[in-house]
From TrEMBL:
Protein source organism: Amycolatopsis xylanica
Listed Basic and acidic residues bias regions: 191-208
Protein name per the record: Transcriptional regulator PadR-like family protein
Coiled coil stretches, renumbered: none
InterPro entries given in the database record: Metal_resp_DNA-bind_regulator, Tscrpt_reg_PadR_N, WH-like_DNA-bd_sf, WH_DNA-bd_sf
Amino acid sequence: MGAPKQPLTPLAMAILELLHERPMHPYEMTQIMRYRRVDYRVKLRPGSLYHTVERLDGQGLIEVVDTQRQGRRPERTVYGMTEHGRDVFTAQVHQMVATPADEYPEFPVALSALGELTPEEAVEQLKMRVMNLRARLAADQVVIEQVTADNLPPMYWIDYAYSHHQRKSELDFTQQLIEDLESGRMPWPDESGHHLAIVKDEKNDKTG
């Protein structure tokens, strides 16, 4: 039961974060994560959560502290965090906060391939993204207004505020990109120009 060989996954971090509050069984963890919208930033599936709990238990980061049974329901195992788990969790939080991670979101990949579409297709899909972003931002705002009305301390939903800010920035960028494409400020590459650039690069490689 040593330290994990690989950094803890986002789901593992979310589980350990919950267990800072009190011991819980996996079903309760799932319900609280969904209520708090943790599934907006962590892939949350019941099967993967149970598997992650078992792995954390095997690593000595959490341990069984109780079992519960209600009526005819199956027995539920309650887990608590170990001291080793607290140490590993704290060390990873330090690293994650201080060091920007290399992350690989889909949108930059799509933007790099945008020139392979027609200008009309590109603008149409970007406008669809704007609609989807506005819908997500509106849903965000409902949640933010609710937690504000409930006087929930901002530190408890700072991750949600960060995601909301990211979506606003992405919306601004996407709207500006659409304007630049429609106005011609960002010219669309033609096929011949694209191939000329490739030939030029190949020539430089041979003579460099």
